[in-house]
Structures are given as structure tokens and as C-alpha cells.
């Protein structure tokens, strides 16, 4: 019984939240890694692209609500997602036309592209705030729980409760689908192969007749789809607030670099590694220890790091990986 | 610049002559920053009191009062000091309504107020640290110290039969002061505090903070935070994960937003916030309604009272010099004397200029105790049936 209680406590406070958070990071890191692999720069505007995508989704969601359309018990935002992706993709392609294309034609150093993306980040930052404001917005209209604490306790008779929110399940399912679709596209389709060829060797790809403009356009569309999906899932699970997407940029980059920049499998693995480390390192293990070793009730909380330092965990992982394995765990490109 | 020099020279001469003068009141509030939504109504309340005194034409032989606003940002003490310094040396204010947030108020008092001998009355800085501060009789506040709120909250929690609690606070002077004071009184009175931990505002996700609080355990969770900020995030996380079902809410969490968000989920929770009921509050609300803003918004009444106290003290001392009128603030706020309600400033000023005593009641039943802070009346609230119910006062 005590071992079961310990297991449920770990599931409830570590595994489930970290898995949902890891999935959101993985989707974000996939977008970053794709742009790095094909367009060859670290896109700092990615966090704010997520915010813009989520904002677009919320506006469409409001429209659907006004029309009385609902996906109950699933969140209606899933219905609004494709429209939001289209809008975001258009914005990304327009940004590329106005900003990045010029620098690409001049074949500038990657660092100049990175700085340009910082500028784009600030513009998108402002744009999102002008469109939807700075306030917290909740748009999770579906059923809240798949398993709720009171019911779980009643079913099992355990003293620990287990909560599984619907947004967490939706996050994991949608992330799995998105990853599957992306890998299928990259490995099985002609366009996907062309993209990988362009990523491996730009000049060789051009010689074999691949149209670079088309590759760039496709990259932005896929990146927009990933960013919007990640942004919407994050907003559904937590709540939409423009500023939070700026903050999540650091763990996303940590995830992409840990996995190996430019390597999609690495991005997914990196997302989960960062999320599980953040949650497990800041979780106090006293209660679990109490269940596992009855009779031992430690004074402290058995917490490695106070929760205020959660973001520091991403930094530490980033530094350790860059010091000892600069190409990341899955052999991406070196930074 | 020339005009400005002439104006200051002229006002210096006039002040020496002790006849009608142009009195300036500073308003130091966080017009930008985390409390930017509260500041406009607070400043409007100050200006309402000033207008009332001006319309009476009786203050210091027909002197007029004007206000100067300074943006103290609430969070940045250096910016607050610079802003107030500017209106002290530039505009030569005769008194200050402010600061707004505890940290910034302490810095302003120590670095501008005391060196310049400026009287400051804060409507909303509630940190216990301001009670013991060496203020040379220059600092007052129309809001109660959180030390008092901590005691009220500790009593209330024990009376509800809650014997052990976890405490989380927003990581600033307000949250820390309140949490420490609560924990101290609660332990003294026999309760057990399992953990006191901070949370930062403005984050998306509080599951890690909630996990830490849940691991420490307790029958209830005390949330010394803000309802529009991390406080609600913590409550949401605790409810979702089943970590806590009973919450204790101090003033920062009390608001309609709390009920809108959680409704029936707060069935067993309770809390308190500083508030006064009765004649003064009703009269103040009527005044603000006529002026076109909401008098029930947080600390609006306290702001009106702060400005009123400054001007009444000037009338009592027959001087707008802070070094002279600072000793009169306590006299006009407390008994004995004729009771003065909002809208009756003219009467108060007239009585004082005739040498009689007044007891300013104002919007928030002002009663200054100790080193010049409000004694504080608290509403006790519960959330039975998914609504916010007032169940008593203390």
C-alpha cells in the first residue's frame, strides 16, 4: 500500500506534469531545430511565434464560440488550430520576405541572422500584445479532468490522489501525432527528402535541381505549424499570457541543444530530458521517502533545489552539454 | 526655467509672509508596474479631497492646493527615490501621499522623506517593517500593518479548527511581511506551520511550487499573494492536483476575480481583508460616484483619507511647513473632537482654524495607533455556496 502511495505521488506530482511540459518543449524545440538545420540560424523569435499562433487560435476560438460551435468534451481550440496555423504561416513567410531573404541573398554570417531574429522577436512580441493584450486568457472549454483526485481516492482507497487533466492527455496525443507526421514527411516524401538534402549540403542540392525558395517556404510553414501547435497546447494546459512564451524560450533552446541542434529526434528527447530534470530536481522527496521507508521522517523536505531556481536547471544542463558534448546527445551540428 | 525660478522665489516670499499661498501635495504611486490598475483611482481619490478643500476656500487663509504626480513604479526603489526627489526639489511639495508599495516606500522615506523633513502618508504600504522604522515623526499610513492582519488571520484560522497549515507568499515585501507575521502568531497560539515558501508572480505554471507545498503537507494552505498574479495560479494547481482543498486568503487575494475563477471549489475556504463599513464609506462612495470613478476599488478610500489628513493637519497647525504640521496629524485623526466624514472637509478646516478639535473619520474609519498607522478593521469572509460572504468584522 505504501509503495503504491509513493508511486501515485510520483506520478501525480512528477511524471504527469513533466510529461506534458516535456511534450510542449519538444514541439517548440522541433521548430527551432528545423530552422537551424535548414536555414542555419537560431531563431530567437520562435517563442513569440508560439505566442502569436496561440493568440490567432484564441481569436478563431472566440469566433467559433460566438457561432455556438463546440467540440465538447474536447477543447474547441483544436478546431481553431488549422486556421491559426495558416495565419501564422502567412506571417512567417511575410517575415521571411521582408527580413531574412535579404540577408540570405547576401550570404551573411549566421550571427547576423540571429540578431535579425532578435529584432523580429521584439516586433512579434509587440504585435501579439497589440492584437490580444497582455492579460491572462483561458480558453480550455472542454472537460477539465480525465481522472480527478476525489474519484481516484474513492476508487482505489489510497491516501494519495491522482489527477490527470484533459489538457495533459490532449498535449501528449497531439504531440505524438505531430511528431509522427513530421518524421513521415521528412523521411518518406519527396519534399521531405529535398529538405534534408538542402540541409546537408546547400550547393549540392541546388545543383541537383532543388528549388531553394520552395524549401525555405516549406520550412517556414512547418515551423509555423509546430510553433502554433506548441503555443496552443501550452496555453491550453497552463493559460495564455503573452509574456510566458518569451520565458519558455530558454528551456526550448536548452532542449534543442541538448538533443543536438538540427536533429529532430534529439529535439524531442531533449524536450523530455529538460522537463523531467526541471521537475524532478525541484520536487521535494520527503513524502515519497516517508512511504518507501516507514519510520524515517526526515526534518528537511529532501528538495535538491528550491522551486525559484527551476530555470537555472535549463542553464546548467545547457552548460554541461556544451562543455562535454557540444554537438548534443544525438550528434547534431555543433553550435 | 526663468518662470519657474520666479515662481519658486515668489512662493518663498509668500510663505514667509504667511498669507494665501500655493500648497503642493505630491502623489507618489505606481502609475506603471504591477499595481498600475489600482493607481488611477487612488490618485483620483487624492485629487477629490484636494478639490474639496480648494472649493471651501478656507484652508490657510484661502490658500490653494495643487497636486503633482510622480510615478514610483512600485517595484523599482531607485526609480521611486528619483521620482520623489524630483518633486521635492523641483516642485517643492509640502507633503506627500505615498508611497504605494512597501519596499519603495521604505526607500523613499529613508532617502528623501527624512533628509528633507517631508511628511509622508501612505495609503497602501502595509509591511510590518514600516512600524518600527526610525521616521522622526514624518511617516504615517492610513492602512493597517500586516502584522495586525497576520494576527487576525492566525486567530481566524485556529477558530476554524485548522491546526496545521502550509504558507506560500508572493516574493516581495508585502508577501514576506505578511507570511512571517502570520507564521509567528499562529505558532505562538499553538498552530503548526509545515513550510513557508515563496512563489514568483507572472509564471505560467505553478505545479512545482504546489508539489513542494503538498510534500510539506498541512490541513490548509495560506496564500499570501495576489489574485491577478501567482496567487490564483497556486490555488488552481493545488485544487487540480488535490494537494489542498481549504485555503486561507488575506487581502491581496480577496476580490471578485477569485470567486469568478474558482466559485464552488472554495467551499471550505475563508479569509479577511481590511475594510470599514458604515457612514464614512457610504459618503465616500457617493462622492466618488459623482466624480465618475469607483470608490470601492482597492485603497481608494485610504488615499482620500491620506490627503485629507495632510490638509487638516496643515489647518490645525496653521502652517504648510511639514516640520510644523507633522505633530498635528495624530491629533486630527483621533479623538477628541467633532467627527468629520468624507465631504465635510470644509467643516473640519473651519473648526480647526477656530482652534477647535476634530476627529477625522473619513472613508475608512481612521484611527491612528502606535507610530501613526491605522488600527485596522477587517472583514471576515467565507466562500460557502460559491459566493463571497461577509460573516463578521474584527
Strand share of the residues of chain B? 15-25%
Give the strand tally of chain B.
16
- Using the CA coordinates, give the radius of gyration of chain B: 22 Å
Helix-strand makeup class of chain A: mainly alpha
Q: Do you know the CATH topology of the largest domain in chain B?
A: Rossmann fold
What count of helical segments of chain B does DSSP give?
14
CATH architecture designation of chain A: Orthogonal Bundle
Which spans of chain A have pLDDT < 50 for at least 5 consecutive residues? Answer: none
Number of domains of chain A: 1
Sheet with the most strands: spatial strand order of chain B: 2-1-3-4-5-14-13
Show the largest interface. Answer: A-B, 38 and 24 residues
* Secondary-structure-derived class of chain B: alpha/beta
**% residues in beta strands of chain A:** under 5%
Order of H and E elements of chain A: HHHHEHEHHHHHHHHH
Major sheet: arrangement of strands of chain A: 1-2
Brief summary of the model shown:
The complex is a heterodimer of chains A (335) and B (394). Helix content of chain A is 73%, strand content 1%.
Explain this structure.
The complex is a heterodimer of chains A (335) and B (394). Chain A is an all-alpha fold. In chain A, 73% of the residues lie in helices and 1% in strands. Chain A has helices spanning 2-39, 46-67, 77-105, 110-132, 149-156, 166-188, 190-200, 202-207, 212-237, 242-247, 249-259, 264-282, 286-292, 310-324, and strands spanning 145-147, 164-165. Chain B has 2 domains: 2-146 and 278-374, 3-Layer(aba) Sandwich (Rossmann fold); 147-273 and 379-393, 3-Layer(aba) Sandwich (Rossmann fold). In chain B, 43% of the residues lie in helices and 19% in strands. Chain B contains 14 helices and 16 strands. Chain B has helices at 2-17, 39-56, 77-89, 102-116, 146-159, 173-188, 207-216, 230-241, 256-262, 279-291, 300-317, 322-325, 329-333, 345-353, and strands at 22-29, 64-71, 95-97, 120-122, 139-144, 164-170, 192-199, 220-224, 247-249, 270-274, 338-340, 358-360, 368-369, 373-374, 378-382, 389-393. In chain B, strand 1 (22-29), helix 2 and strand 2 (64-71) form a beta-alpha-beta unit. Chain B starts with a helix and ends with a strand. Classes of the chains: A mainly alpha (335), B alpha/beta (394). The interface between A and B is medium-sized, with 38 and 24 residues.
Amino acid at each position: 500500500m505504501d509503495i503504491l502511495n509513493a508511486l501515485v505521488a510520483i506520478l501525480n506530482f512528477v511524471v504527469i506534469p513533466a510529461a506534458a511540459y516535456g511534450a510542449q518543449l519538444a514541439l517548440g524545440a522541433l521548430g527551432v531545430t528545423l530552422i537551424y538545420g535548414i536555414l542555419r540560424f537560431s531563431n530567437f523569435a520562435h517563442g513569440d511565434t508560439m505566442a502569436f499562433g496561440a493568440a490567432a487560435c484564441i481569436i478563431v476560438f472566440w469566433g467559433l464560440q460566438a457561432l455556438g460551435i463546440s467540440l465538447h468534451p474536447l477543447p474547441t481550440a483544436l478546431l481553431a488550430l488549422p486556421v491559426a496555423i495558416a495565419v501564422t504561416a502567412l506571417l512567417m513567410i511575410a517575415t521571411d520576405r521582408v527580413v531574412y531573404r535579404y540577408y540570405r541573398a547576401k550570404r551573411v554570417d549566421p550571427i547576423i541572422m540571429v540578431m535579425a531574429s532578435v529584432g523580429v522577436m521584439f516586433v512579434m512580441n509587440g504585435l501579439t500584445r497589440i492584437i490580444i493584450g497582455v492579460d491572462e486568457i483561458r480558453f480550455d472549454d472542454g472537460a477539465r479532468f480525465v481522472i480527478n483526485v476525489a474519484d481516484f481516492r474513492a476508487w482505489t482507497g489510497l491516501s494519495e490522489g491522482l489527477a490527470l487533466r484533459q489538457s495533459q492527455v490532449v498535449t501528449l496525443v497531439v504531440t505524438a501525432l505531430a511528431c509522427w507526421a513530421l518524421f513521415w514527411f521528412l523521411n518518406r516524401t519527396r519534399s521531405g527528402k529535398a529538405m534534408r538534402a538542402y540541409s546537408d549540403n546547400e550547393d549540392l542540392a541546388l545543383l541537383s535541381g532543388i528549388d531553394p525558395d520552395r524549401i525555405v517556404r516549406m520550412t517556414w510553414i512547418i515551423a509555423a505549424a509546430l510553433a502554433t501547435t506548441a503555443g496552443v497546447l501550452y496555453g491550453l494546459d497552463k493559460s495564455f499570457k503573452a509574456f510566458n512564451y518569451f520565458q519558455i524560450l530558454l528551456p526550448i533552446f536548452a532542449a534543442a541543444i541538448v538533443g543536438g541542434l538540427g536533429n529532430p529526434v534529439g529535439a524531442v528527447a531533449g524536450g523530455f530530458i529538460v522537463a523531467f530534470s526541471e521537475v524532478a530536481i525541484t520536487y521535494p522527496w520527503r513524502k515519497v521517502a516517508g512511504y518507501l521507508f516507514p519510520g524515517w521522517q526526515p526534518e528537511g523536505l529532501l528538495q535538491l533545489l528550491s522551486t525559484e531556481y527551476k530555470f537555472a536547471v535549463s542553464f546548467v544542463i545547457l552548460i554541461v552539454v556544451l562543455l562535454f558534448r557540444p554537438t548534443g546527445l544525438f550528434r547534431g551540428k555543433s553550435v | 526655467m526663468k518662470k519657474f525660478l520666479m515662481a519658486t522665489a515668489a512662493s518663498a516670499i509668500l510663505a514667509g509672509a504667511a498669507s494665501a499661498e500655493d500648497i503642493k501635495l505630491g502623489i507618489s504611486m505606481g502609475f506603471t508596474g504591477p499595481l498600475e490598475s489600482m493607481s488611477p483611482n487612488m490618485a483620483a481619490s487624492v485629487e477629490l479631497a484636494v478639490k474639496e478643500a480648494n472649493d471651501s476656500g478656507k484652508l490657510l487663509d484661502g490658500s490653494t492646493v495643487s497636486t503633482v504626480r510622480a510615478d514610483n513604479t512600485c517595484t523599482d526603489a531607485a526609480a521611486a527615490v528619483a521620482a520623489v526627489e524630483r518633486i521635492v526639489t523641483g516642485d517643492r511639495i509640502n507633503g506627500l501621499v505615498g508611497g504605494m508599495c512597501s519596499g519603495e516606500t521604505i526607500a523613499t522615506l529613508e532617502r528623501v522623506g527624512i533628509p528633507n523633513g517631508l511628511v509622508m502618508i501612505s495609503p497602501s504600504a502595509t509591511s510590518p517593517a514600516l512600524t518600527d522604522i526610525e521616521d522622526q515623526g514624518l511617516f504615517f499610513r492610513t492602512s493597517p500593518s500586516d502584522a495586525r492582519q497576520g494576527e487576525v488571520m492566525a486567530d481566524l484560522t485556529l477558530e476554524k479548527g485548522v491546526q496545521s497549515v502550509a504558507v506560500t507568499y508572493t516574493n516581495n515585501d508585502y508577501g514576506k511581511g505578511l507570511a512571517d507575521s502570520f507564521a509567528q502568531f499562529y505558532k505562538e497560539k499553538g498552530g503548526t506551520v509545515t513550510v513557508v515558501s515563496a512563489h514568483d508572480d507572472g509564471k505560467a505554471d505553478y505545479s512545482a511550487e504546489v508539489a513542494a507545498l503538498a510534500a510539506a503537507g498541512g490541513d490548509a494552505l495560506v496564500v499570501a499573494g495576489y489574485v491577478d498574479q501567482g496567487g490564483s495560479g497556486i490555488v488552481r494547481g493545488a485544487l487540480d492536483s488535490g494537494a489542498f482543498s481549504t485555503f486561507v486568503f488575506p487581502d491581496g487575494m480577496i476580490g471578485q476575480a477569485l470567486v469568478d475563477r474558482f466559485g464552488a471549489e472554495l467551499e471550505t475556504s475563508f479569509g479577511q481583508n481590511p475594510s470599514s463599513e458604515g457612514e464614512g464609506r457610504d459618503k465616500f462612495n457617493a462622492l466618488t460616484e459623482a466624480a465618475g470613478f469607483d470608490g470601492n476599488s482597492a485603497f481608494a478610500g485610504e488615499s482620500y483619507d491620506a490627503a485629507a489628513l495632510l490638509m487638516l493637519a496643515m489647518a490645525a497647525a496653521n502652517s504648510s511647513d511639514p516640520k510644523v504640521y507633522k505633530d498635528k496629524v495624530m491629533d486630527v485623526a483621533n479623538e477628541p473632537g467633532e467627527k468629520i466624514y468624507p465631504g465635510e472637509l470644509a467643516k473640519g478646516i473651519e473648526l480647526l482654524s477656530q482652534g477647535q478639535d476634530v476627529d477625522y473619520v473619513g472613508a475608512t474609519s481612521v484611527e491612528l495607533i502606535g507610530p501613526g498607522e491605522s488600527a485596522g478593521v477587517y472583514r471576515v469572509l467565507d466562500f460557502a455556496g460559491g459566493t463571497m460572504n461577509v460573516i463578521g468584522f474584527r
